[in-house]
Amino acid sequence: MRADRLVSLVLLLRQRGRLTADTLARELEVSTRTVLRDIEALSAAGVPVYAERGRHGGFALLPGFRTELTGLNHDEALALLTAGSGRGEQAFGLGSALASAMRKVVDALPESHQATASDAARRFLVEPETDLLSRRAVTDDIPEATMVEIRRAVLAGHKLRVHYAATGQSPQWRTVDPIGLVTVRDRGYLLATRSGADRTYRLSRVLAAEELPETAQRPDRVDLDRIWRERCAQFLSGDHIAVLVRVDPKRREELLGSAVAVRTAELDADGRLRLEVTFQDLRHAEWALWQLGTDAEALAPGALRTALRDRAAAMAARYADT
Questions:
Q1: Any idea where the HTH deoR-type domain is (predicted)?
Q2: Computed from CA positions of residues 87, 89, 90, 92, in that sequence, does the dihedral angle turn out positive or negative?
Q3: Which of 128, 154, 187, 233 is deepest in the core (most CB within 10 A)?
Q4: How far apart are CA 27 and CA 258, in angstroms?
Q5: How is the chain split among helix, strand and coil, in percent rounded to 5?
């Protein structure tokens, strides 16, 4: 539509300064004649666009001209400010870029909307560090230089070398084909393939990374949401054991630190958490719950309850008075 093209023309001149009619025509994908007609329409509407003759001439806006033709209304700007006001600054090392973008969003608003949108955004809180149960969120600590290399390789479609410390193994260098980045509950993951096989890497376990010049072997188009669902299903369908457990909220992080994954979580009427968690096997589950003592109770499966009962009975017998 012509209105959209006029807005784009003004924004091009604002962002890039003086531009020739031919350059504007290429950017807008129209003819030079159309650009000249659009320039006349803007001038007639009061937009201070002027022409400069000569070898380095072109069209430009008067210095200091501000436009409110960004297309952002109050609620759209509020949505962006709210999204940026949470803990999104932790995602993929883009904190400073996010802060800068939020400042630009506010600056792009009409002056009459700037104060109200900023004040409204301060009244929304997204994903605070603690919840009502006083549990602090645990975020991954990823060196900025490492995150920059990973992000560049993902966006450029280049191969990536990572120095990765898998659980229970010595760190090793691996060359992968990056597909995308995912953040879930403040934990970041790199989805990739290695020698054609699917691989998922926890970003906090990447000790160093190097973007390589070689092109990554990956599809041009990707559906990260579908890939993530498939990998989660594959992960949970392995030789793991699902455990239903009630736990004191104060010990939640300790339990989750030893579990492989969390499937569901809800709060019981008595204030305890009811969680469905996954462990590597029965022995792993027994060990993890034993560490929590009476602050946790395994509700299922029955084999785990029996194992914990037998262990408690053996311990009681060991320390019984003779």
A1: 2-61
A2: positive
A3: 154
A4: 55
A5: 45, 25, 30
Nearest 5°: phi and psi at 187? -115, 130
Report d(CA 155, CA 157) in Å as an integer: 6
| Contact between 142 and 204 (Cβ < 8 Å) | yes
E strand or H helix at 70, and its extent? Answer: none
Ordered strands of the 296-300 beta sheet: 261-267, 273-279, 241-247, 296-300
Kindly tell me if the per-residue pLDDT of 160 is higher than 90.
yes
Q: Residue 196 and residue 218: Cα distance in Å, rounded?
A: 9
> Which is higher by pLDDT, 35 or 232?
35
Are 183 and 189 in contact, with CB atoms under 8 Å apart? yes
pLDDT in tens, 234-288: 766 666 788 999 999 989 888 888 887 787 788 888 889 999 988 888 888 999 9
Contact, 166 vs 154, CB < 8 A? no
pLDDT at residue 118 is higher than 80: no
**53-62, 124-133, 176-185 — which is least confidently predicted?**
124-133
Which amino acid is residue 166, in one-letter code?
A: A
On the question of pLDDT at 112 being above 70, the answer is: no
| Spatial distance between the Cα atoms of 7 and 264, rounded to a whole number of angstroms | 48
